[in-house]
Amino acid sequence: MISQEYKELAKQMMNFALENGCSDASISIYQGTKSSFEYRNTALDELEQSSEAGMTIQIYMDGKYASYLTNRLNRKELEKFILQGIDAARYLEKDEFRRLPELSRCYQGDMSGLDVFDENYDSISVDEKIDLIKKTAAEVFGTDDRILSVSSGYGDGAYASYTIASNGFSGEDKHSYFSLSASVAMKGEEDARPSDYWAESAVFFDALKKEDVGKTALQRTVRKLGQEKMESGIFKMLLDNTQSARLLSPVISSLYGGALQQKNSFLIDKKNEQILPEKFTLIDEPHLRKARGARWFDGEGVATRKQIIIEKGVLKTYFLDTYYAGKMHMEPTIQSPSILICEYGDQNFDQLLDGLDK
């Protein structure tokens, strides 16, 4: 958690910026730690642990805007840093659309209820983490003569931030994550070396699935053995759900204000038009408890809410922060999505597969 001392420091720096010529200011102070371990076959191959802390300073003055980042969290040094930033900002061109969001759009709750931080994060020992990836690799290593290599990985992280802005917004965010993965490479026919992976993740260590991750990676690799070339043609294609993010990425990136305003989107002026098949509905659900990505507010402090992005193939909204909404003379929405969810159909993967002729 961000200490009260750091929160007070953020407030002091915001006031310092205002006292020295800024019309508005936003200060964010953050802390984080993460670790990652990799096990290859029968030995530990990689170990990494790191921590960070810093402050992001956004200043608005005379129609000009600048953003600075520092990890020197000493009051005297920060004051000097801000004064230098103010002097540098005077050389920038004015941009009338750079402003803080209206307070009425910002989150003003008590920030409780999402349950996305594991209070026991620091109690998990390095031995536990290494033992976990060792067991994951051991699930499959040596179980099949065709296996060439097995890798297992573990990662975790805990982050906290506190933001205070001169428009009246203040908010704190903290979250944690844990992940476990495995990949398997096998000897196929001739020079073929098929490989595949599997991964699990969770907000809480106790909720992380810790068994059969290696076995699932092996099963997914075995599926690739014996592949043969086929004649070219036009076929129906069934995609594994792990590919959904890659498949949708071009659509999502085209909904951001930056892409729209810079004419770098194929979805300009497509709101309320059919862009995908009727069976497809996409929803942003930011308030799912114990879910990675859940949050009460975005990077500007604007309150998040459940929102339909695409309804039965029809585009319903764009991701417009205060700046790009102003430049485009549109109503602002949200800076970015939180947790994107597709509505399920009435058939699972195997049923869909059975419905294909080839």
In short:
This protein is of the alpha+beta class and 358 residues long. Helix content is 23%, strand content 28%.
Report how far apart the termini are. Answer: 54 Å
Provide the gyration radius in Å: 25 Å
Parts with pLDDT < 50 across at least 5 consecutive residues:
none
Number of helices: 8
Give the averaged pLDDT, no decimals: 95
Q: Tell me the total number of β-strands.
A: 10
Strand order of the largest sheet: 3-2-1-4-5-6
Work out the helicity level: 10-25%
Structural class by secondary-structure content: alpha+beta
How is the biggest beta sheet arranged? 6 strands, antiparallel
Strand content: 25-35%
The geometry reads as: globular
Order of helices and strands: HEEEHHEEEHHHEEEHEH
For this entry, give a set of tags.
four-stranded antiparallel β-sheet, about 350 residues, 10 strands, alpha+beta, about 25% helix, 8 helices
How would you portray this structure in words?
The chain has 358 residues and is α+β, with helices and mostly antiparallel strands. Helices cover 23% and strands 28% of the residues. It has helices at residues 4-19, 75-89, 126-138, 213-222, 244-253, 257-261, 322-327, 349-354, and strands at 24-40, 43-61, 64-70, 147-165, 170-186, 195-202, 282-284, 307-311, 314-315, 340-342. A 6-stranded antiparallel β-sheet has the order 3-2-1-4-5-6. A hairpin with a 2-residue loop joins strand 2 (43-61) and strand 3. It is globular.
